[in-house]
Amino acid sequence: MTRRYHVLAIPIRIVLNSFGDHNPNGMMYVLKENEQKVKNLVKKNPFSPVDLVQPLVIRANEGETIELLFENQLNFNTGMHFQQAEYDVCQSDGANVGFNKDTTAAPGESILYRLHAVKEGTYIFSDLGNPASGENGSNSNGLFGALLIQPRFSWWTNPETGKTMNSGVYADVHHPLLPSYREYAWIFHDEMEADDLTGNRPINHLTNQEEESFHGANYRYEPINRRQQLIEEGVVGPNTEGEEVHHDSWVFGDPSSPILRGYVGDPAKIRLIHAGVKETHVFHYHVHQWLSDPQDLNSEMLDSQSISPQSHYTVEPLYGLGSLQGAFGDAIVHCHLYPHFAAGMWGLNRVFDTLQDGSQCYPNGVPIKALQPLPDRKAPPKPTKLKPGFPNFIPGKVGYKAPRPPLGIKGGRGLTELERNAAVKNPRPGAVFVDPCPDNATKKEFNVSVIELPVTYNKQGWHDPKARIFVLDEDLEDVCSGKKEPEPLVFHTTAHTSICVNFTNRLPHILDGDAFQLVTRTYETGFHIHFVKFDCLVNDGANVGWNYDSSVLPGETIQYEYYADIELKAWFVHDHLFANAHQQHGVFGSGVVHPRFTEFLDSATGEEVARGTQITTRNPLIPDYRDFVLFAQDFALLFDNDGKPLQPPGFPGSNDDPGLFGVNYKNEPLQFRLGPDCDPAYTFSSYVNGDPITPILRAYEGDSIRIRLLQGAQEESHSFNVHGLRWLKQRKNLNSNMEEQQHVGISESFTMETYIPRAGDYFWAFETEEDLWNGLWGLIRAFDEKVPDLIPLSDRPEPLKRSRPLPECTGKKPPKAADPTRIPVKKGPIRYFDIVAFQVPFVYNSFGDHDPHGIIFSLREDMDAILEGKKKPEPLVIRGNVGDTIEVTLTSLLKLNLFPFQDGIYPYPEVKEQAFYPPSLRISLHPQLIQYDVKTSGGETVGFNGDQTVGPGESRKYRWYVDAPMGACGMWDMADIRNHKSQGAFGAFIAEPRGTEHLDPYTLKPVKTGTNVVLRNPFLPSIREFVTIMHDGVRLLDKDKHLIVDPLAGMILPPPDVDEDEVDTYDQGSRGFNYRSERLVNRYRKHPVLHDLFSSRVFGDPATPLFESYVGDPVTIRLVTPAERRRTHTFHLHGHRFRFEEKNLNSRTESFAGFNVAGAARNLELLGGAGAYMGFPGDYMYRSGNILWDIEQGMWGILRIHDNIQEHLPPLEH
Amino acid sequence: MSNQKRGLRPVNDTREEALVLYFEKHIGRRAFILTEAFPFMFIGKIKGLLGDIVILDVQTTSVPALEGKVWNIHIDSIEVFYIETGTGAKIPHLKEHSDEEPA
Q1: B92 to chain A: which residues are within 8 Å by CB?
Q2: E strands along A747-892, which residues?
Q3: Where's the Plastocyanin-like domain (chain A) (predicted)?
Q4: N or C: which end of chain B has fewer CB within 10 A?
């Protein structure tokens, strides 16, 4: 079937909220049938949001062909590029790539796109005619939307009228066989131009500085700044401060941002889309959980999910709206990054318990729009005077803060008559309107307080004088007196437990001001929980919509109750009232829900415990394990020993990346770990510097462990890496990917379940450069023999009595690690690689952008050719097959005079807290995901392991073993993270199936290295393998040897008032693929036509790798991101899809891979091979999904798919 | 030629019969059973057999809501089992640690 749409791109004024904040230069896609209507409405309502001004969302069914006539009414070439779909790249790419035909439309022109909806899901569309970032681009101004593909035979209706519809962000979707569901498109976007009513940039009324940039959803946002102004002016909310009522509809009425409406139990799909250009956001949805992959029942359960630009997920709340317990009320949906949340990136999911036919009103008199019940579900009861339904039984007062819940606060009020009518049979504190806890559940009670106290983060005395933390009441005295070291509160329970928390607010009323923050009256706090089941009206620990305010005042105690139905991860707890003001001071913790029947033991004494970030468990059915919890933190507002604020923002109250970093309230900055000889190579050595103050996770060799990874604060992405231990990405699924790295955003929770095969010190780190530099690393220490303060696991053999003393800090260079090759290889082939590390200039493109100080690993046999310019430098890619032993001989040929900054300060790209750290002439090579003994072959000098780095002229051997076809494994230097890595000291190891030959694609002769090979295997089809190494933080000079200060230097259409200080440290530097970068600004200077910038007809092919294939050839892309900045990149390949997890047949299939940040490694097997199932030849762009600033900075290239045999490219034999 | 055609007894019949006999012999004893499908694990007392279906008074499974009930488990769905015969290890009585007795 063919479905047809006529879509226009039009300029439009977008009013972003009811305060009149607007984008005068907005652009949107709209159906032709709505064009005049929307234009008229906007003309009539210049200062109010217009419903029809929303991102275009159209729908079709799986298997259909969509013919889309696109008409451009903007004054530059635009198009519609669709992700996920299959299409003829020469006719319907919506771009002008390589040697394809230009498929953008000129102003006033039209073009017909033909798309094939091969699979249900979310097909984002956006413009590529104007790839400029910033306010002169098209994407930041709104030129995006989505085509939502439904199951075959579906149809859709307007949720308000029940009539069929052609476009709209909300729809009810129906099917002859399957249940109907509510479909909500939730489209995050950022960096849109926002002006206030006067046409100027909004000013923050407290700081008098320009407001944060726009962060919103569906062309709307509801900033705290605007709402707080109404309090300041005395219009509403007497005696309130601001943040605690930011989401309170009693004070302000409903927000302009999206409200997703449904009835209790309705099946729903939130199509979560990131159409923004820059930030990685964290989508959090109160009360509900969902599977990370709705197609895969073994996938991880989530309630918070990071999303990077131009990527998407389907969020299908388990048990429907209101979850298992059937909660009703307002569940807030928001970006969990607090500065974004405060900027207005939030909305509500409103779950009604009574029928809304349009005749009812909210408490403030605003009519409640009708909402059709889903036709296959029983309609909820009609509201009556005695049972008016949510929100009209709540005894609130319009214009004032929401009321406190009945029963919850100790000594507080009971129920009103209307509340009693709405309540469950046995209302009790925390469970008044739904009862989440079954009668036979185990009961556990915890008494928790939140307190303020000074906390010292490191040995140098960096401290937070106003740290705020959760503690159990029984620990209060010990923590406050200094007997117990403060750590984030982690309490432990088992599945099928009803958890009661008595939460006491012991904070001072005032969070005092300083260089970081303004004085804030944080007079009430709550204990907001994730994952567990609860009554969202009274127990959310928040103040949301028309719900109650379930927080407490200082000195008061509130009782909460939750149910942990099944084994859960470490569920996140935090305050929801003043989170933006004080969560970065430490107001976060976690409850871990373990398998049933688990006992929790103190790892030192074996006594039962209820809390702790490191415990030992005992279970009669499953293997015992060590349980470790790590919380990453940014925005840590620290002062040094002299009271000097560290990394204060430009002005107090600014959310512009203030402060530093922590992990469990600790950090171990590298600048303080230079030993007496000032060699960064020994930074991580405990011989030289003693153990870090950050967590050392202790276990015995062979122990099972679970690392619970969370992020407690506050705005940024972090990349957790463990060296030498890997885990299943989806714990329950044995076909899931094995990983050694995990991206994490605030409030996300991951469990890494693994075991420690060999004794030694394993390195863990949040491994982007700035995190690591500022101390986010530690060790997992696996003992080979008994130590006195660590009980063995009860089901493991008793460790042997200690035969030799434990190593100690000597202050001297670490001893050399033993030679791993002294032990003979028992079985299997050995592959030898003689690798040298040396310096050589890298030329990044034909415009002369270059890094004169590149550091490269290469095979010794290739070194001369590279130095002589006969062979182009590319990152070293080596391969081994399953069963192979890999012996690497590494030699350092680094020379001090070839380092640019021998004085020890690397000025750009910089990191926070720059300090002396001279270049090391030692180097090492650390691989991911394959097997090795960390004591000899981890390629790093860590803890009490011996030295595994090599000095100039020295060589050492590493021995690795390929035990599984892991595919892409990153490989990088660990001797000097400041002076080596972003300069090129990285590569990849590819672990191939047994029996694979690795051939040059152009000669079909065997090769030992290369980013582009053909894999030939007697049992598998021949495959083209393309290795793309995405990297950033590069320091480039232009052809005139002037420093290129990217990203701003690379902007095509920079704003006139561009300010270098606006660029975060972690955006600094240039970026590219495989030491190449096709920066668009170079092309634009030569030929200033935006839509031609990707064209090879105009510019020739880009400098980035050009991968070639024939239609239908099997293709695997190995995508590795070894270096180094904290900003994540999305990878997107036009016109193709791949499985998220290549070995999991139930995996979702997508055309993007998100979160490419230090340590990420992916294997993308193109479904249907080159040209996808429909086999269209042409030039397919691979690129970053981040319009700001990656694409402009050259993070793009071409996969060229030929249909005719080319002389230079032999076909794969079949 | 198949065993049946040769007049031999199919091996599955032999297996099923042995299992039925074994479970029958241990009626009244506690059994630990793993199944491939949900809910994967049962601990309970064997009440009897209905043909080749084990009738189990279930004390513990992976899901609390399924406990304290009688479940009928087809022996073909049993992957692994252990019956407490008095001579080998005891199947633990699994208890949850509560601050108070369940209501």
Answers
A1: 620-621
A2: 749-755, 760-766, 777-783, 830-839, 842-843, 850-851, 855-859, 876-881, 885-892
A3: 58-152, 1101-1157
A4: N
User: Mean pLDDT score of chain B, rounded to an integer?
Assistant: 89
Cβ A1139 vs Cβ A1157: under 8 Å: no
- Tokens 């949906």 belong to residue: A333
Q: How far is CA A391 from CA A267, A286, A322, A397, in A?
A: 22, 17, 15, 12
- Determine, for residues A443 and B102 on separate chains, whether the beta-carbon distance falls below 8 Å: yes
Q: From CA A1039, how far away is CA A1062, in angstroms rounded?
A: 26
What does the alpha-carbon distance between residue A518 and residue A779 come to, in Å, rounded to a whole number?
37
Locate A900 and state its tokens.
Answer: 């640019």
A497–B96 CB contact, under 8 Å: yes
Q: Identify the pLDDT of residue A34.
A: 98
Tell me how far apart the alpha carbons of residues A526 and A542 are, in angstroms, rounded to a whole number.
6
B64 touches chain A (CB under 8 A): yes
Structure tokens of A763?
A: 């390195």
Q: Compute CA distances A320 → A180, A289, A645, whole Å.
A: 11, 10, 48
Q: Chain A within 8 Å of B89 (Cβ-Cβ)?
A: no
Nearest CA in chain B to A600: B97
Q: Which residues of B touch A596 (CB under 8 A)?
A: 62, 64, 94, 96
Query: What is each CA distance from A587 to A467, A552, A636, A709, A714, in whole angstroms?
Result: 8, 15, 12, 16, 11
Element holding A1141 (H helix, E strand): none
CB contact under 8 A, B102 and A439: yes
pLDDT over 90 (residue B22): yes
pLDDT at position A1057 is 77
DSSP state of A86: B
Closest CA to A17 of A216, A207, A160, A189: A216
Least Cα separation, residue A597 to chain B (angstroms): 5
Taken in order of first residue, the domains within chain B and their CATH numbers are: 11-83 (2.30.30.100)
Write the residue in B92, B95, B100 that is nearest to A443 by C-beta.
Answer: B100
The answer to whether the CB of A783 falls within 8 A of the CB of A676 is: no
**Is residue A245 classed as helix, strand or coil in its secondary structure?**
helix
Taken as a whole, chain A contains a residue count of 1214
Is B99's Cβ below 8 Å from some Cβ in A? Answer: yes
In chain B, the residue whose alpha carbon lies closest to the alpha carbon of A595 is: B62
The domains located in chain A, with CATH, are: 1-151 (2.60.40.420), 442-619 (2.60.40.420), 660-810 (2.60.40.420), 822-1202 (2.60.40.420)
* Residue ranges in chain A modelled with pLDDT below 50: none
pTM as predicted: 0.96
Taking a C-beta distance cutoff of 8 angstroms, is the pair A651, A729 a contact? no
The DSSP bridge partners found for residue A599 are A618
List the single residue in B with minimal CA-CA distance to A439.
B103
CB-CB neighbours of A623 under 10 Å: 13
- Residues of A with Cβ-Cβ distance to B65 under 8 angstroms: 438
Chain A nearest C-alpha distance from B14 (Å) = 31
Contacts of A444 in chain B (CB under 8 A): 98-99
Residue A208 exposed, middle or buried by CB count within 10 Å (0-12, 13-18, 19+): exposed
- Checking if the pLDDT of B63 tops 90, the result is no
A442, A501, A618, best to mutate vs chain B, most B CBs in 10 Å = A442
pLDDT of amino acid A1062? 75
Chain B nearest-CA distance from A475, in A, is: 19
Given a cut of 80, whether residue B101 has pLDDT beyond it is no
From the list A585, A614, A588, the residue with the least C-alpha distance to A711 is: A588
Partnered with residue B34 across adjacent β-strands are B41, B80
Q: Among candidates A875, A877, A879, which has minimal Cα distance to A1076?
A: A875
Nearest CB neighbour to A620, from listed B62, B65, B94 = B94
Identify the pLDDT of residue B4: 61
Task: Check residue A135 and give its pLDDT.
Answer: 86
